[in-house]
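Q: Please design a sequence for this.
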């Protein structure tokens, strides 16, 4: 079988590992990928080429796609205001939600990639953490208000609830 070189990718980094189909062990030698996404031993594809099994690694795949989670925390000014603006992205190709800083959020908004969704939320960081009853009225605490934010965000960006589990995060 002949495949033109233009339709082959020889070696390089891949977001996962390759397994030898005969032995079942990880393959660490030279490999080539054809236009259909199949991997083979060696540097070219012939009728005698041995196929390899590709096992993807989700974390490496997201990094290979330029999709990396950032740890962002509130500033002193955010605590003064009582609200911390948080920015999130979801990549539909790998079905993963990450948090990013404002700069990367704005870059994604400008890029207008069809496979990525963006979301900006207000996270409450000040006030009583738990709900309080004053007279006859129930005043929601920061934890309850943040849970409401998560519930609303889940409708727009499914999967964000897996990332935002601690409703008391950053609350003072």
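A: Design:
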């Amino acid at each position: 079988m002949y495949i033109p070189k233009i339709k082959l990718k020889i070696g390089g980094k891949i977001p996962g590992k390759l397994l030898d189909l005969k032995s079942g062990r990880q393959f660490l030698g030279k490999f080539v990928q054809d236009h259909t996404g199949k991997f083979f031993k060696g540097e070219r594809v012939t009728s005698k080429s041995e196929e390899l099994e590709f096992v993807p690694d989700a974390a490496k795949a997201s990094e290979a796609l330029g999709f990396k989670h950032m740890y962002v925390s509130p500033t002193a000014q955010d605590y003064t205001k009582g609200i911390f603006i948080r920015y999130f992205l979801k990549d539909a190709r790998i079905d993963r939600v990450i948090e990013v800083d404002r700069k990367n959020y704005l870059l994604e908004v400008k890029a207008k990639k069809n496979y990525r969704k963006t979301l900006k939320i207000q996270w409450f960081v000040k006030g009583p953490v738990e709900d309080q009853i004053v007279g006859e009225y129930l005043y929601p605490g920061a934890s309850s208000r943040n849970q409401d934010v998560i519930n609303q965000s889940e409708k727009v960006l499914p999967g964000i609830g897996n990332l935002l589990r601690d409703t008391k995060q950053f609350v003072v």
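Q: Thanks. Anything notable?
A: Residues 5-56 form one domain. Strands lie at 9-10, 16-20, 31-33, 39-41, 51-56, 83-91, 96-100, 116-124, 132-134, 137-139.
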